[in-house]
Protein 1
Amino acid sequence: MISLLLACSARIALVDPPDSRSSRLPAPDGDLAVRPARRPMLLRGGGADGWEQIGARPVSIDEERVFAGRAFPMTLSPLLSGRTTLTEWAAEHRETLLQLVRENGAVLLRGFGGMETPQGFSDFVMGLRLEEFGMGCSAAPRTEVAPGVFTANEAPPQEKIPFHHEMAQCEDKPAFLFFYCEFPAQTGGATPIIPSNAVATHLREACGHAFSAVRPATSRPPLAVCRPGPSGRG
């Protein structure tokens, strides 16, 4: 099954998969894993039948959770498969799709056609008419496989990477992130995501004094971003 994840980059942290081809989205553990999601019933300009107007519907996945009353990630599937490609559908309903990404933090698209190749993914992203983000500041080796489409991670499959903000080292951050799964991992592999604001709230409530002590003041200059190596040193 072809899967695609759209995320608002200012609101999520993610873990690059040991096998970057995986589409699995495990739920966060512990106190941050909260009640099952409630299904949203309203779209802009419509009532409960608003989903029919855009030809898609929200579906539940086991890993889905609710943060601040909204599904994370929201998962959408077409009402009628085979009627249109994802590129055509997204171009027609661009504003609604981006609205859902902003409101929920992440939207997972499953079951749409036309996403069998990296070129199809590229066509979909280009059809959303977003400002292109340059990859010159990327700290990881990536290979361009289609216009504007790069491999997510080329680290050895057994290497685990902790939660991080994508492109955090860049002076200008991307407004949206797109992840496309062409070949799901046969074993293992995962791309966990979690809302950063929920993590910050949890840390503030659970370890208030310690959180305040390490949280940089707004006047402090930006800190260098480093990634721990196998030895644990940055």
Protein 2
Amino acid sequence: MLRRSMIPDEAIADLRARVDLKALVGEYVRLVKSGASWKGLCPFHNE
């Protein structure tokens, strides 16, 4: 069952426009380019 987010779509769009998520996540996880996307291993357990 899908539930509607309590966060308005406009707030999510605004956050995505203002924050470089790749740079933020890249401070904590080593990211590797994979096609048009970036991938990183989960920092909470060994893979």
Protein 3
Amino acid sequence: RLLISFKALLKSISSTKKCQKSEIISIVNEAGNEADKVWSPNAFIIYRREKKAKHNDVFSKRTEAEISKVVGKMWQNEPEDTKDMYYRLAEHAKEKHLEKYSGYIFIAIKRLKNC
């Protein structure tokens, strides 16, 4: 049983942030753990975090968007066996996330640009 009904959730969304392009909502799970903004990272996110930490001196004066572009090109040039390692790490992270937040539910709500 969820701690908040779906109708109550939609009502609170519509009354708080108007005219958002999109909103991402995560709900508290049955055990009462707050799973808000706690997603299991995908393979690229794990790779990006590692590269950013490793090359912090190079990335220190760049924006997050610039870092993502540079690391994205690095990711595209990685061999498949390297990417597979990160996919396995992401799968492991997903399993750990499911253990910690067993009742986690993710709902993405798209809104019109001009409402």
Protein 4
Amino acid sequence: MTAFCEMLERIALDAAAAIIEVYDAGPEVCYKEDQSPVTEADERRQ
């Protein structure tokens, strides 16, 4: 496996772990002033 492929695999696995962590915690939705939802996943991305 090339170094580039290994890097992409690590990124994908890290993203999957973050998604699973948020999913397992259950939904917690906050709302912005315009009443559009902001999820914990969105906040982590910032």
